[in-house]
Structure to design on (947 residues):
RNA sequence: GCCCGGGUGGCGGAAUUGGUAUACGCACAGGACUUAAAAUCCUGGGCCAGAAAUGGAUUGAGGGUUCAAGUCCCUCCCCGGGCACCA
């Protein structure tokens, strides 16, 4: 009798797989393909960590499973090796990044091998290999030629610690995604990729991705941030401003402006509120600010300097007080109302979104409201809130009478067909009671209604609620607007009185006057929801939703904007792909001819970033100085490198044909393998790698026709991160990092793999906790003892039924990434059948099921049982539903929904037979009083007697 | 603030279309083997009451629908993640 010795057998089979090329996939297979991909690692000096083990194990189970299922499976691996750690290490030690990278790869590859992952190493890639980045550069040139790569000067995110520019996606809460340093704004000439050009395609593509988690799709959707609205132009005119004025200046400006007809273009999602636009705001970066001649030039200039100087974080802080300066001497004309309104510059408006200018509607936008309140700007409401009548209740109105009585009008509950029919409900003020209290009392007592009071600057409203949710009706009393009559949704009428009318009404008591006066001083609220328009000329009484497109059309042009920004694609660092561009004095920007690729990284002595916005490459004269491929004259190479995300934006394509030196991948290979069927990876890449690589793929498909599918990944399977046992992130500084090497050493790869999966649902984050690993360890040891000592014979019928149940469950669990329940399924199977008769065939079937999870032990046991070759060459056992059918089944017996007993019946028993047997139970009889009124029978499961 | 995801024993977690809640594992208790311990194997309870048979409660809180709710509906609380002055 041998003992389970993971160390011995694991090394043996890893060697076998390598020598026999068990997992090497073919581009010429006749079989259906499955492309199983897991994000490739950055080969850091620390080596493999638990964050890798989880997705790799899951992906490996899936890859082995589909091989058993008869698919040609590609499960490749490579190295995403450009990046800062290697470079920072080089700065410290002087070791070239290429060398440390190579060392790290060797180490991490050893670790991966020791976990027994079934990667196809014949397709291995390395993003820092010139044979690879030649094609990254080539692809960049395709973007350039398509006009999607361009150089521009602008304010970009700058990491002061890493001394490089960053993409928008790399800034998390104002901090550098990599190092956590506070990101600054810096004006630099940078390369950009025009991802915004593909905003709509990136958005629409998500619709077809049924097998992506909603969370991932939603996050990308929000990141792209599509807003539909309108661009509206406001004319700028001179205005008389207070104080002394240089008449000659006014004269010159007057002719200048009136003729030039300067306009400020704003973007809004709420053109329906345009009548409420009481001022304009332009961002401090707005280009028009440099052209406009205004009275308070100095003051505005100072403000702009201060606003654009501060760090982004301060500017977007939530609790920040709003600041701004009015542009004196000019006004804008509201194209809807014709009113002349002031123009302000304020940093709460962002220069790089929309048009960099807004129309402010303080009555219906919280930010504008805050600003208007602070600077005492007019607030003009143009939307009245409405809520759908529910349960037959409608909108009502209130009448106050001289003797303190009030009458409430509401739609009759039973008059749903006639919305005009109303019922009246009368009440009155008692003693010293306030009318508000009287209303509350009456409504509560008589109709069980709650009343909610809202005060706006220009009107106040009562919302009458039933059960705190159903709206019974609404009342509006205007404070100082013109009396209006509005049509409401179901045709009911309400009347809005001016404050004056209310106060002067003969029926209004002094008391009501007090109430109204009090309401006017209350802090106002802002209505941001759509409603019914008033104060809006011809659109009065129309619903916001209906008026919106009409008003967008009438006063401006409908317009869609996106929050997505163009991708800052250059980094001022050494260890990245050189951007294949030459700068020539005569010809300007000249792409490196394709036949001169790759532009290889030169050896440098100093890897230190200069911090001036120049890459260390700028110091290598013999590399920088080159000749222009257009004119032959002297020219300089682009010294910026590409971001870390470049190589990973297309690596999934290269795997299909990783050795090709003529193309980035042949069309045939891409046609066979693309798209990736299942892509395992982290949630943290949702708006980074996952978005970027979709962009590249969509570009290569739609624009270039080089890739056969638009969307690269059919299915995305995210994993939860592995935390340390204390629930915090594993980090070297805290010393709570679990080293995978120790685990494979102590328990073996099979146990570590299975336990990792058993810990919890794959998509959920888990705290690493070694306590439970003995359970899995014991389980595999038991399986070993069981199968090495078992005397095989015929299958017991229960063995067979349990086996087929296991086939079905394992199938389901792997397909739905529920690895934790798959593992418990194996344990349960063992517990159930270990003492029963079993055939050798069934044992082999069991091994095939377990194999994707614990491949080494299964190979060894298969060999001990007399099998030839690898379990991988077998096929997945076929599920037979007939085998799971049992002769005797257990039926739960309920009385009034509570389980009182269980009975065992023949599987073929009829409902009547089961009923009779169930009623015979003493336990059941105890709870049944008399004849049951109703009997619910759920076949094969339960019977419920309802008394 | 807005948008997602989640809340089940002492712990990790299971529960397919609404149909026996707590599978599987850890920890715990008792037993076997052993001089003893570890390892291994067997058994057990899981909250409350009870010696036991048994009964009752229970899936974050409260309400509702249903013969039947962890699962569906409403209100609220808490935790995790994403976005955040995006007009």
């Amino acid at each position: 009798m041998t003992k389970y010795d993971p160390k011995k057998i694991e090394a043996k089979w890893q060697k076998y797989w390598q020598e026999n090329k068990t997992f090497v996939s073919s581009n010429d297979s006749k079989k259906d393909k499955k492309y199983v991909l897991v994000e490739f690692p950055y080969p850091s000096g620390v080596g493999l960590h638990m964050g890798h083990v989880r997705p790799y194990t899951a992906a490996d189970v899936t890859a082995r499973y589909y091989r058993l299922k008869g698919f040609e499976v590609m499960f490749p691996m490579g190295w995403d090796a450009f990046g800062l750690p290697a470079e920072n290490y080089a700065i410290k030690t002087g070791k070239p990044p290429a060398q440390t990278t190579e060392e790290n790869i060797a180490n991490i590859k050893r670790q991966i091998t020791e976990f027994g992952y079934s990667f196809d190493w014949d397709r291995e890639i390395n993003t820092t290999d010139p044979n690879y980045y030649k094609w990254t550069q080539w692809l960049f040139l395709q973007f350039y030629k398509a006009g999607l790569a361009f150089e521009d000067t602008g304010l970009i995110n700058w990491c002061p610690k890493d001394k490089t520019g960053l993409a928008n996606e790399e800034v998390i809460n104002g901090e550098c995604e990599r190092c956590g340093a506070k990101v600054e704004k810096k004006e630099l000439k940078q390369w950009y990729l025009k991802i915004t050009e593909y905003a709509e395609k990136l958005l629409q593509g998500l619709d077809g991705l049924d097998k992506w988690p909603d969370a991932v799709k939603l996050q990308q959707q929000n990141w792209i941030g599509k807003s539909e609205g309108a661009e509206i132009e406001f004319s700028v005119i001179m205005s008389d401003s207070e104080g002394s004025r240089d008449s000659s200046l006014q004269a010159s400006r007057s002719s200048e402006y009136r003729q030039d007809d300067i306009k400020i273009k704003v973007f809004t999602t709420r053109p329906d509120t345009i009548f409420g636009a009481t001022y304009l705001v332009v961002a401090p970066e707005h280009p028009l600010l440099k052209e406009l001649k205004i009275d308070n030039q100095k003051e505005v200039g100072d403000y702009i300097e201060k606003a654009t100087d501060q760090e982004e974080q301060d500017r977007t802080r939530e609790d920040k007080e709003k600041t701004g300066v009015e542009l004196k001497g000019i006004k804008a004309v509201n194209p809807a109302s014709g009113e002349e309104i002031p123009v302000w510059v304020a940093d709460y408006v962002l220069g790089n979104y929309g048009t960099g200018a807004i129309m402010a509607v303080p009555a219906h936008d919280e930010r504008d409201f805050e600003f208007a309140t602070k600077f005492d700007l007019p607030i003009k409401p143009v939307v009245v809130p409405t809520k759908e009548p529910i349960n037959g209740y409608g909108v009502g109105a209130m009448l106050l009478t001289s003797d303190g009585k009030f009458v409430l009008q509401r739609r009759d509950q039973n008059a749903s067909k006639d919305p005009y029919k109303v019922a009246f409900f009368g009440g009155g003020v008692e003693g010293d009671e306030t009318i508000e209290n009287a209303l509350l009392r009456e409504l509560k007592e008589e109709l069980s209604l709650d009343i909610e009071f809202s005060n706006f600057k220009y009107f106040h409203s009562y919302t009458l609620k039933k059960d705190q949710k159903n709206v019974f009706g609404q009342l509006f009393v205007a404070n100082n607007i013109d009396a209006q009559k509005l049509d409401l949704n179901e045709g009911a009428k309400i009347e809005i009185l001016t404050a004056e009318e209310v106060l002067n009404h003969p029926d209004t008591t002094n008391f009501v006057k007090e109430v109204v006066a009090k309401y006017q001083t209350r802090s106002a609220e802002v209505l941001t929801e759509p409603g019914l328009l008033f104060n809006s000329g011809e659109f009065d009484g129309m619903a916001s939703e209906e008026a919106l497109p009409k008003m967008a059309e009438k006063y401006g042009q409908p317009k869609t904007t996106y929050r997505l920004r163009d991708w800052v694609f250059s980094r001022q660092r050494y260890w990245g792909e050189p951007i294949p561009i030459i700068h020539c004095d005569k010809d300007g920007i000249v792409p490196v001819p394709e036949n001169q690729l790759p532009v290889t990284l030169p050896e440098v002595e100093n890897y230190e970033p200069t911090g001036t916005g120049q890459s260390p490459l700028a110091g290598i004269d013999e590399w920088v100085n080159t000749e222009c491929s257009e004119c032959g004259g002297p020219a300089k190479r682009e010294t910026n490198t590409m971001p870390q995300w470049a190589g990973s934006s297309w690596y999934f394509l290269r795997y299909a044909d990783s050795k090709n030196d003529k193309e980035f991948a042949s069309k045939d290979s891409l046609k066979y393998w693309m798209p990736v069927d299942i892509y395992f990876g982290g949630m943290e890449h949702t708006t980074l790698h996952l978005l970027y690589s979709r962009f590249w793929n969509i570009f290569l498909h739609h624009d270039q026709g080089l890739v056969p599918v638009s969307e690269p990944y059919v299915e995305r399977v995210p994993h939860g991160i592995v935390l340390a046992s204390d629930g915090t992130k594993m980090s070297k500084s805290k010393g709570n990092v679990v080293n995978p090497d120790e685990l494979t050493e102590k328990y073996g790869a099979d146990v570590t793999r299975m336990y990792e999966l058993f810990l919890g649902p794959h998509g959920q984050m888990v705290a690493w906790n070694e306590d439970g690993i003995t359970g899995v360890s014991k389980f595999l040891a038991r399986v070993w003892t069981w199968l090495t000592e078992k005397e095989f014979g015929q299958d017991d019928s229960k063995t067979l039924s349990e086996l087929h149940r296991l086939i079905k469950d394992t199938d389901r669990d792997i397909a739905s990434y529920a690895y934790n329940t798959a593992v418990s399924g194996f344990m349960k199977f063992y517990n159930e059948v270990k003492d029963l008769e079993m055939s050798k065939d069934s044992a082999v079937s069991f091994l095939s099921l377990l194999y994707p999870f614990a491949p080494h032990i299964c190979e060894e046991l298969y060999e001990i049982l007399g099998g030839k070759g690898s379990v991988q060459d077998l096929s997945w056992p076929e599920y037979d539903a007939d085998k799971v059918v049992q002769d005797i089944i257990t039926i739960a017996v309920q009385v009034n929904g509570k389980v009182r007993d269980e009975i065992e019946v023949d599987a073929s028993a009829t409902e009547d037979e089961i009923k009779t047997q169930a009623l015979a139970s003493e336990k059941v009889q105890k709870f049944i009083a008399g004849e049951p009124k109703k009997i619910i029978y759920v076949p094969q499961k339960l019977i419920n007697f309802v008394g």
In short: Residues 50-68 of chain A form the longest helix (19 residues). DSSP finds 31 helices and 41 strands in chain A. Confidence is low (pLDDT under 50) at residues 241-259, 387-428, 455-460, 466-524 of chain A. Residues 153 and 189 of chain A are 4 Å apart (CA to CA).
